[in-house]
Amino acid sequence: MTKFTLTNILWTSISLMLLTILALGYQPAWILLVITLISYSLIVFGGVINVNWQFFMPVICRLPNDRNEIFLTFDDGPHQNTTEILNLLEKYSAKGNFFCTGKQLEKFPLLAQKLFQMGHFIGNHSYSHTPYFPLRSVKKIKEELQNTSILIEKYTKSKFRYFRPPYGVINPTIAKGVKAVNMISIGWSIRSFDTQDREGNKALNKIKRKLKSGDIILLHDHSPKILWILEELLRFIKDNNFNTQRIDTYFEQNSTYASKLH
Predict the structure, then answer these.
(1) Three-state SS across the chain?
(2) % of the chain with per-residue pLDDT over 90
(3) Is omega for the bond preceding 224 within 30 degrees of 0, making it cis?
């Protein structure tokens, strides 16, 4: 049972109780009923925009381990910056996880093949990454995920079932679409906000301050200072004896944890 379902049960129970009290002539119950509705709306909205709440469906936001492994993830690519990102990862012998959109995969097919051939992971980040993605029907969401998965398989000759929701937004429709195509949703434990940092210092310092084993770090191929942020971060990772890992490799090595997702 999801947190959304439990919230609905609780809200319905409280609302019925208040309506009963109101019917018995206790007028102040109106105020409590309004407060209950506002609270419910705020909780649901929080569940939509906070992927870590796992409000509508299970979402993997950390990958616990005692091997000092962390997971670098890059959203929205491939992009012109991706080649330099790959060069930096190779320089520091690091593994990356690229959650790509179908449109960008079609735009940079050779780059998609290259990043996989260099030992990195490609995940599904929808086809369009449109701001209207959360408003689409279950059918359209399924089509976006399936079309992107077809492209990933075409370029990598491998099947992956890991999905990252655009903007980290999840609602009941997205949850149904993801479940329909039997995919596992991947979130993050550290959101760097690198796309909003023109200098890069805030994003880098936030990651360095919070980083611990099992963290999934959210970065973007197209953020303005991604190359500087990444090189400084890779140096920090090396100096602090962290290991970077592919998400799919983690699940292969931790079959007991992976079995809980099915």
Answers:
(1) CCHHHHHHHHHHHHHHHHHHHHHCCCCCHHHHHHHHHHHHHHHHHHHHHCHHHCCCCCEECECCCCCCEEEEEEECCCCCCHHHHHHHHHHCCCCEEEEECHHHHHHCHHHHHHHHHCCCEEEECCCCCCCCHHHCCHHHHHHHHHHHHHHHHHHHCCCCCEECCHHHCCCHHHHHHHHHCCCEEECCCEECCHHHCCCCHHHHHHHHHHCCCCEEEEEECCCCCHHHHHHHHHHHHHHCCCEECCHHHHHHHCHHHHHCCC
(2) 90
(3) no
Backbone CA torsion sign across 89, 95, 101, 104? positive
Cβ–Cβ under 8 Å, residues 112 and 155: yes
φ, ψ of residue 198 in degrees (nearest 5):
-70, -20
Contact between 75 and 164 (Cβ < 8 Å): yes
Distance separating alpha carbons of residues 48 and 27, to the nearest angstrom: 33
Q: Give the side-chain half-sphere CA count within 13 A for 120.
A: 30
For residues 120 and 99, the answer to whether their CB atoms sit within 8 Å is: no
Q: Would the pLDDT of 258 be above 70? A: no
The burial of 190, by beta-carbon neighbours within 10 Å (0-12 exposed, 13-18 middle, 19 or more buried), is given as buried
What would the pLDDT profile of 96-131 be if each residue is shown by its tens digit? 999 999 999 999 999 999 999 999 999 999 999 999
User: b vs e for 133-142, b when ≥16 Cβ sit within 10 Å of the residue's Cβ?
Assistant: bbebebebbb
**Cβ contacts of 162 within 8 Å, gap of 6 or more:** 121, 123, 124, 183, 184, 185, 186, 247, 248
Q: Does the pLDDT of residue 14 top 70, yes or no?
A: yes
